[in-house]
Amino acid sequence: MVRDTGEGFYDPYIVSEELLKHGFIYDKDYIILEVPNIVNITYGRDVGYKIEQETLPSDIESISATKIRANAGYNPV
User: Whole-structure pTM over 0.90, yes or no?
Assistant: First the structure.
């Protein structure tokens, strides 16, 4: 995953080129996903907390890990 910070530090194409140099093959050994830049996750004594909702594209929001596990035949006891 590559965080989209809006600052251009981690261009997915540069990341892909670096992985290729080390012998990794795109779509076989890895894929690159751009993810939002999550900056605040805080908890603990006397710190309080801040909850912000991250909204992802609908195709990602609709992913269900429960369905993926069920289709993979995973049945926890």
Answer: no
